[in-house]
Amino acid sequence: MSAQNLPGQPHLAYRGKELFAEEVCLSDLAKEHGTPLFVYSKGSMLAALAAYQRGFSGRDVQICYAMKANPALGVIQVFAQAGCGFDIVSAGDMDRVLAAGGQAKSIIFSGVGKTRAEMRRALEAGIGCFNVESEAELEVLNEVALTLGTQAPISLRVNPNVDPKTHPYISTGLKGSKFGIAHERVVPTYQRAAKLAGLRIVGIDCHIGSQITQEGPYLDAVDRMLDLVQAIEGEGIPIHHIDFGGGLGIDYNGDTPPSAEHLWKNLLTKLDARGFGKRKLMIEPGRSLVGNAGVCLTEVLYLKPGPQKNFCIIDAAMNDLPRPAMYQAFHQIVPLNSREAELTTWDVVGPVCESGDWIGHDRMLAVEQGDLLAVLSAGAYCMSMASNYNSRGRAPEILVEGKNAHLIRQRETIADQIQKESLVNT
Ligand code: LLP
């Protein structure tokens, strides 16, 4: 039987009328585990990683998976076994990496609001680098390290003031953003760091935004970073590694980001031309490693045609898939069983009591009550941002590997949800 691949989704294909992820029939999974249900393809994650590895071949690079995109233990395990490090933003993230078999020394710790307790725990565990985001944080980290009688390995996160040309909520490298240390303060802050006995300077880093689909902003950021490295080293402070963050976009709806391989070949040409080709590099990709590896399976509960809008009410909602409500994001929605029927325009919405609870506007679908659908590109920033709004338990997650489907997270029950709550004794 010939397989028909979906654009931008190399590990999803219709075989006859049925949608498969790798060798697994998705409607079988939906029937066995119920919906909503997240399904991830391991092959797709490793293929996305391989594109970076090809781009970097022969170079000294550490790829640190930005696990905020999808922190499931079973997903972290895939990247740990493939030799990746991890970009974390909390002590909880660190605990997940360690629980999944990742190495503390492969961890870099980003984020504007690290607490003293988190710094202490990360120092005790022996993480690889703190990406420090402010002058105030630098002083606190120094104090915490001195109290423990150790030195914290640090890099300063630079705000390079580059426009990544993406959604404003996920632009992080512009002057007005809360992230990183302003360009003009970078050299004096390195000079200060060099005088603090509790710190050991190891690198420099930046991250300009997310879902970036053009090469230009990266090229600009590289130039600004290299100018800074020259200025800092000119002050006698060696910089061992340069971390360019994450941010590469994926194809949600005909988007055409450069491939990781192509992007990095071009960026490396620029590094070579400026004499930085041998420098140790780090990157922090999240979405581009997992985004198109995941789908969310959902059932059509009711069809509600109306005079102005037709509503297709599904059992997945904004608590499972928050990106449309938060960023007006587009996710493709396709049937698990394609049917030859007339297409109608539907607003695909969830059961949550908010008008913002929509998953797709004006979608052409041939659907009936009880049909199963897949919301695509749901591997990144979906489960990781899922909530219990409306007392909805979070969905289970499955990792597909060839013919095998591994349950990597069970459906959350109401008992799970209320176990830390108590009634007041009256
Ligand atoms: N490094 C740092 C310091 C970050 O803040 C981020 C993402 C990454 C790496 C990974 O970026 P990526 O390769 O995934 O683009 N919830 C939003 C995305 C927020 C991104 C936050 N930072 C969304 O659903 O679009």
Would you write up a description of this structure?
The protein has 12 helices and 22 strands. It starts with a strand and ends in an 8-residue tail after the last helix. Helix content is 28%, strand content 26%. The mean pLDDT is 95. It folds into 2 domains: 3-41 and 291-418, Lyase, Ornithine Decarboxylase, Chain A, domain 1, CATH 2.40.37.10; 110-285, Alpha-Beta Barrel (TIM Barrel), CATH 3.20.20.10. The protein is of the alpha/beta class. Strands 5, 15, 16, 17, 18, 19, 20, 21 and 22 form a 9-stranded mixed sheet that branches. It is globular and about 70 Å long. Bound molecules: ligand LLP. The site of ligand LLP has 22 residues, from helix 10 and helix 11.
